[in-house]
Amino acid sequence: MKSDIEIAQEAKMLPIEQVAENFGIDKDCLELYGKYKAKVSDSVFGFDQKSQKQKEAKLVLVTAVNPTPAGEGKTTTTIGLSQGLNRLGVKSIVALREPSLGPCMGIKGGAAGGGYSQVVPMEDINLHFTGDLHAMTTANNLLSAMIDNHIQQGNSLDIDTRNIVWKRVVDMNDRALRNIVVGLGGRLNGVPREDNFKITVASEIMAIVCLAEDIKDLKLRLGKIIAAYNKKGEPVTAKDLKADGAMAALLKDAIKPNLVQTLEHTPAIVHGGPFANIAHGCNSVRATKLAMKFADVVITEAGFGADLGAEKFFDIKCRKANLKPDAVVLVATVRALKFNGGVLKQNLGEENIVAVERGFANLEKHIENLKKYKVPVIVTLNSFVTDTDEEINIVRRKCEAMGADFALSEVWAKGGEGGKELAEKLLYVLENKKSEFEFLYDENASIKEKINIISKEIYGARGVSFSNRALKDIKKIEEMGLDKQPVCIAKTQYSLSDNPNLLGRPEDFDITVKQVDISAGAGFIVALTGDIMTMPGLPKVPAAENIDIDENGKITGLF
Questions:
Q1: Which is the catalytic residue, given 304, 406, 466, 509?
Q2: Using CA atoms in the order 65, 66, 70, 74, what is the torsion angle rounded to 10 degrees?
Q3: How far is Cα 175 from Cα 540, in angstroms, rounded to an integer?
Q4: Catalytic site residue 384?
Q5: Taking the mean position of all CA atoms in its chain, how far away is CA 30?
Q6: Which residue, 178, 190, 282, 540, is the most exposed by fewest CB within 10 angstroms?
Q7: How far apart are alpha carbons 258 and 289 in whole angstroms?
Q8: Strand order in the sheet with 235-237
Q9: pLDDT at 270
Q10: Alpha helices of 372-503 — where are they, by DSSP H?
């Protein structure tokens, strides 16, 4: 069996100008990064996005059950479904997030799909791509440098060095940087203070780039970033530090969507990469709207399980960008259900009807959750050779009994051909089942009320416990008048609860909120729960140990 990277390296790609022209995108709107990658310039939009009503293009979200070590193939399904639609003669573009180097070198791997449902050039996309994450890292750290320089040069804004909330970032899993001390080495080297690093995808810069409508909106949002507080407890923003202009200049290209292609030469817009367990988990608004301008059906995804990615897609991205999704595809696997049913990873290939039925509880909860948004739900099983007909039929019957449509997906092995059944089911749903999309909560509700609604309605929690620090954080945000914003909950992806060890459909648990931050530029409130961290670490055997390049420049071990 060929690996993902072998399949990708054997692909015969089309020049990206040809891919664009096949879908009506003028090649003069492309800024080329070699033969097979391009930025799409602002001129392609041809309208003021803020006043532009949503095009007639259908918008479909792909989400999944809680991730397991067996892998669910959400990105693979997203790409394969778009390829399947194009094979049926439906003009479809896929809109995805960019990979982060941290997980790529760690344990999760890349984010370009797999098998015969990939976006290419796979190595480029998974490594440095067009430099977006580097630009975001630099813009983030420029603000950090300007904070410390301001303090060094007299501190006219009276910044409280014990209350600097802006953190440095790096696009790598590096636990040693979670807690550091800067400014050592004497007066010429700055003022000593404690500091922290986050991974780049957890930076508010990433969230801002993904939610900004244009360069003007980007600069406005950057200026609103709260970098620190002065000794009176008042916020000090990036605009106060006069950093917003330079930060926007660094991001002038990063805000432009990236155009690549699938293995079947259909367009793929890959742009922005916030994690859904610590951020809002969706690709950029600009990428989605660009796809909707040139396609009839846009297939996009949101990170991790539906309790994180889908909830944030609906309640944050759709709210901020005035998007109204037409359907949602919920990806599961028989193997994932068996894992949630208590089967060990090494035994997932063995038929186990009891475990499938027991593990269905996780899928059941996600179906119930998605229905709360009043969007039609299609469940798709990402097929594995070890799945048995009886296991598949049990899932099919249970999904249909809940009123969810069902389709089998074989996109890893067969590409678009293997996505036809799902594509046909989606077209039926789009034609016959109208979306009545609505948000889960009113953003004008109190912070505690919004957190309670998400925790109880989506996670199934009994209640929410707030730490003393979280309560103080909430009070501060309310005093600043910034509480009327949607909430982005940072939580483990492995469980519906905030405890990664509680699989299936846990009950009688509380969500513990330990800290609440305001992302004033992005326009949402971040609630950190459980033991979630914004800087991951590398595993005992990092994926980087298996990555290599030969004398001819051929990369191996990436996937």
A1: 304
A2: 50
A3: 13
A4: yes
A5: 25
A6: 540
A7: 13
A8: 159-164, 226-230, 235-237
A9: 97
A10: 389-401, 411-414, 420-432, 447-453, 468-479
How far apart, in Å, are the Cα atoms of 87 and each of 60, 359, 385, 472?
Answer: 17, 34, 24, 55
Instruction: Mark whether 2 is an active-site residue.
Output: no
Distance of CA 188 to the CA centre of its chain: 41
Catalytic one among 95, 135, 207, 276? 276
- 360 phi and psi angles, rounded to 5 deg: -60, -20
Per-residue pLDDT reduced to its tens digit, 424-452 = 999 999 999 999 999 999 999 999 999 99
Dihedral sign for Cα atoms in the order 409, 62, 270, 57: positive
Given a contact cutoff of 8 angstroms between Cβ atoms, the answer to whether 326 and 59 are in contact is yes
Which entry of 39, 74, 167, 338 is annotated as an active-site residue?
74
CB 125 within 8 A of CB 112: yes
Length of the chain: 559
- Cα(416)–Cα(429) distance, integer angstroms: 19
Task: Tally Cβ neighbours within 10 Å of residue 317.
Answer: 25
CB burial string 228-241: b at 16+ within 10 A, e below: bbeeeeebbbbbbb
Q: Single out the catalytic residue among 45, 166, 412, 466.
A: 412
CA distance 16 to 318: 29
Catalytic status, residue 439 = no
Q: For residues 111 and 136, is the Cβ–Cβ distance under 8 A?
A: no
Say how far apart CA 559 and CA 244 lie, in whole Å: 38
DSSP 210: H
Question: Which tokens belong to 10?
Answer: 């054997």
Residues 6+ apart with CB under 8 A from 18: none
Residue 161: enclosing H or E segment and its boundaries?
Answer: strand 159-164
Which contiguous run of DSSP H or E holds residue 379? Answer: strand 377-382
Could you tell me which of 549, 466, 483 has the C-alpha nearest to residue 520?
A: 483
Residue 52: is its pLDDT beyond 60? no
Q: What is the DSSP secondary-structure string of 465-476?
A: EE-HHHHHHHHH
Q: State the catalytic residue, choosing from 294, 314, 360, 384.
A: 384
- Active-site choice (39, 58, 108, 505): 108
Active site residue 404: no
Tell me how crowded residue 307 is: count the other CB atoms within 10 A of its CB: 27
Q: Which member of 63, 68, 75, 76 is catalytic? A: 76
- Per residue in 452-472, pLDDT tens? 999 999 999 999 999 999 999
**Cα angle, residue 202 at apex, residues 68 and 193 outer, rounded to 5°:** 130
Residue 48 has a CB neighbour count (10 Å cut-off) of 9
Active site (annotated) includes residue 276: yes
- Report the distance separating Cα 325 and Cα 377, nearest Å: 11
97 in active site: yes
Two tokens, residue 358? 């027991």
Q: Which of 37, 39, 58, 97 is catalytic?
A: 97
Scan for tokens 């600009």, then name that residue: 286
User: What crossing angle do the helices spanning 215-224 and 204-211 adopt, rounded to 10°?
Assistant: 150
Give catalytic status of residue 108 as yes or no: yes
Which of the four pLDDT bands, split at 50, 70 and 90, describes residue 4?
confident
